[in-house]
Amino acid sequence: MKVKFIGGAGTVTGSKTVIETTTMVVLIDCGLFQGIKPLRELNWEPFPMDASLIDAVLLTHGHLDHCGWLPRLVQEGFQGKIYCTSPTKAVAKLIIMDSAKIQEEEAEKAMKEKYSIHEVPEPLYTVEQAKKVFSLFKVVKPSERIAIGEGVEVIFDPVGHIIGACSITVVADGKTLVFSGDIGRDNDVLLYPPMKPKEADYVFLESTYGDRLHPDTDVKLELETYITTTFHKGGTVIIPSFAVERAQTVMYLLWQLKKEGRIPTMPYIVDSPMGIGAFEVFLQNTSWHKLTPEICQSMRDMFIINSDYEETLQAIYDKGPKVVIAASGMVTGGRVLSYLEYYIGIPETTIIIVGYQAEGTRGRKLLEGAKAIKIYGNYYTVRANVLEIQGLSAHGDQMDLVDWLSDLKAKPKKIFLVHGENEPADALRIKIKEVYGYPCTIPLMGQERKL
């Protein structure tokens, strides 16, 4: 058996891991690279093996960095099945279609405004190419053992993080491999605690927050303070948010605060068609989360939902105080950029960062105190107040990740620390060795190992 780390090694994006068993070639996740330009350029590279030889893709969850390269894989000849849970199928369709639309729009904008280095800018993939992915999806039920081919069985176990997200156990060639995907938190606002693996010869564990502990802070109080302060200054609050789970979490917390009379009356806007699509996924998959249909409906009634871009423009030019939740979560694209073009230079504006910001993203640059941000070829001076709420992360911290291994009945032969930058991964390696004595390694991008 061989494993090859094609993405999500030494970085938190572009997750792709190939497993070659004696009977099948299986790809775990097929994510898009985000962040710094050298990583983004990898999206344009051909898959490092013949895509038609891959028998199946196993999808841990529907975030772009885990599913967003599927259209390219299909374009290169992949014709197998894509196994995932029902919510993940729905979320992945939303995210891939949104990604394709953004790719097309940005290529068109770059052509029109002539800020691309390419004479004819092209999208990474088109909407039509994205649509070809969806017929390949095969829905699996959580915690059921199924055969996906000769001698290969898989189990999807829920791990929180976002709706539908699972770790994946692969049993083949007499070995048990567990792929964590992204692990959520025990005390998540919307989702249930992650299920822990019981048996594993090899574990492929994410390490996004491998070097930190989430602060034990009152998230609602932070939101209340930032929003009320901005309102009294006559400013606008912009919350760049991942459209799936994070947007719904922020909506839920704002709904609670409004119900408790702790935040002012003003427009509360969700400007993310995909975020509303994700809300529908919550309504259709009530067994996956804690909210009742009644709470979901009441939450939705509180917000102004912007569907088309004309509504976005109206909200932008409305000078009164307001709170806007808009994608994308790392400020890499989407409608949040339109708001920032207008508001980032206004001192009364508050930008609240509520999730992980990968290296090289605009969100990371804002957190690091950048004086100017480049949007669509132009630089904008940052005069807005940039704040962070760390307690809203959907990723488990170091303690959560270490605890996730606590039910293993026997010592694994190896733990591969993936989906993390080098320092967090190494800090997690040291902690796991200290707590359990388990052997850990941090694979490099493109590295191949025999198991």
Structure description:
The protein has 14 helices and 22 strands. By secondary structure, the protein is of the alpha/beta class. 49% of the residues are buried.
Looking at this protein, list some descriptive labels.
single chain, 451 residues, alpha/beta, 7-stranded mixed sheet, 22 strands, 32% helix, 21% strand, globular
Q: Mean pLDDT, as a whole number? A: 94
Label the overall shape: globular
- N/C terminus separation: 5 Å
Number of helices: 14
Category by helix and strand content: alpha/beta
Low-pLDDT regions: none
Strand percentage lies at 15-25%
- Helicity level: 25-40%
Main pleated sheet? 7 strands, mixed
- How would you write the strand order of the largest sheet? 6-5-4-3-2-1-22
Q: How many strands?
A: 22
Radius of gyration: 21 Å
Protein topology:
Layout: E1 2-7, E2 16-20, E3 25-28, H1 37-42, E4 56-58, H2 64-67, H3 70-75, E5 81-84, H4 86-113, H5 127-131, E6 137-139, E7 146-149, E8 152-158, E9 166-172, E10 175-179, E11 202-206, H6 219-232, E12 236-240, H7 246-259, E13 268-271, H8 273-284, H9 293-302, E14 304-305, H10 309-317, E15 322-326, H11 336-343, E16 350-353, H12 362-367, E17 372-375, E18 378-381, E19 385-388, H13 398-404, E20 414-418, H14 422-435, E21 440-441, E22 448-450
Parallel strand pairs: 3-4, 4-5, 5-6, 10-11, 11-20, 12-15, 12-16, 13-14, 13-15, 16-19, 20-21
Antiparallel strand pairs: 1-2, 1-22, 2-3, 7-8, 8-9, 9-10, 17-18
Helix pairs in contact: 4-8
